[in-house]
Amino acid sequence: MRVGLDVGGTKIDAVAVSPSGEIIGRLRRPTGWGDDAVVESIVLAVRALAAENAIAMADIGSVGIGIPGLVDVESGRVLHAVNLGVESLDLAARAQAELGIPFRVENDVKAAALGAAVLRGATGSMAYLNLGTGVAAGIVIDGRIHRGSRGTAGEVGHISVDPRGRVCGCGQRGCIETLCGGGALAKAWGRSGALPVKDIIEAADAGDADAIRLRADLHHGGAAAVRVLVLSADVDTVIIGGGLTALGPRLEDGIRSALQADAETSPFMRSLHLDERIEMLPAGSPAAAFGAALVGAAVPEKEIVFHG
Amino acid sequence: MRVGLDVGGTKIDAVAVSPSGEIIGRLRRPTGWGDDAVVESIVLAVRALAAENAIAMADIGSVGIGIPGLVDVESGRVLHAVNLGVESLDLAARAQAELGIPFRVENDVKAAALGAAVLRGATGSMAYLNLGTGVAAGIVIDGRIHRGSRGTAGEVGHISVDPRGRVCGCGQRGCIETLCGGGALAKAWGRSGALPVKDIIEAADAGDADAIRLRADLHHGGAAAVRVLVLSADVDTVIIGGGLTALGPRLEDGIRSALQADAETSPFMRSLHLDERIEMLPAGSPAAAFGAALVGAAVPEKEIVFHG
């Protein structure tokens, strides 16, 4: 039995996965804040998942964790998980000490990418584009997370696509994240509300000129991210996930329309059929926690060496 | 013994590579125009290379060809090699029939990327950014060409980075290629001359305002391509090659300065140290032909399947 945990800023999504790869149990629990509380909430989530599904702790072969922040996959250390109040936490070692089960830790977007790829049965290459407060993607090639050399694979949110665009939190101007990141859109909108991007869409539907511009930015930003992923890594499919997918077709159809509009002037872009290569994760998809379970179960990968 | 041929619009660069991976012979010959002449010039180049280096034809185990255009690697067919007057050519089969040696064919930029990676001894991931008439990159991960799903891996030239930029040959606006492709720069410059990009640089040095703007475009476009490659595929190093490298430090230093200037406002970009991660191929580098030899020698790669 493998357990996977998607640890978010407010909740932990936990799944138990059978040896044949089926999700046989799932629960959600609140996430703690700060080092000790994060470790404790993870330990409690694993125990509760086991108890609720009549799984003996001794039958859990591994636990995988997907968590926002910079993750050292080898050591299981987490850095800069600002949404969790964590600056530097030896997460795998501490959780393993509590439960006596091997833990592996991965960046949440990368884990979700792996989960989405395997759930979808993708055999080639795909990207998981996470549209939430920020924007980042995970790339999965032949069933393996493409990690890259220094941890910036899939950081498409900080590619500038407009030298005259809004200033990004990263300091650059016109980053894709300034167009389609929930945080950047909320800031540009500047009005209060619990769900600012939803407010923007609704105000746009009602004819508000500022909101119409920001809605167009959202869709064009998503389209730009898709284009970058296809024209650099050449993934076959881009699966869109993250908090903004709560917008449903108002997100997916909008990005698709932007891709179609952008391709109208370009035979080359039309030949790529990008509008047919995007999908959106269904609401409540367990992809992120499932991907974490796969990460937990993964044996260290053999190095591939070129034999010229 | 392996032979590699980099087939360009005007010349073929051919190398013979020993079993231990050393280049033991090299020659250049003019390329023919049209299907028959291209095949004939390739066959003659292999024969001449063998004769000049006292290599028996029977000792040549494989010939690899890097060629501009769309290549079906499995069949060895070349499509749309417009600079060679080739629309659709069964290159591997025809050359193999003439010489009785197994031929493999690859896109020239991808072959050059592999050659540059192996010559450099790169063990992680790298991109080869070809700045010539057009702009494209090849990505090599762990010693293997990253092919992607549909043949657009590394097509960074057609990522738009300015919605108000010049119209690209592909129909989009503000593509990276409009900034740093030799063809696009020559068109924007609009004055006659055999080496328009060199003319632009020299006119910029002399204070011409148009030329100064285009020189800045060249450097910023190269920098944008480097950023895209690192923030999507996260390659460790970007090696710059292609015709524009004849500009020498006026190309390399300019791109490096642009990367430094762009990072000034962004701690995130500074943390990536992009200015330290670019290199330029030395003039006359045999990387493209050497990479073609490696392509020729490559056995079909085993599929990598994820074992969750």
Automatic annotation (TrEMBL), chains A, B:
Q: Which Gene3D superfamilies match?
A: 3.30.420.40
In terms of Pfam families, this protein maps to: ROK
Quote the SUPFAM superfamilies the UniProt record gives: Actin-like ATPase domain
Please state which protein family the record places this protein in.
Belongs to the ROK (NagC/XylR) family.
What is the protein name stated in its UniProt record?
ROK family protein
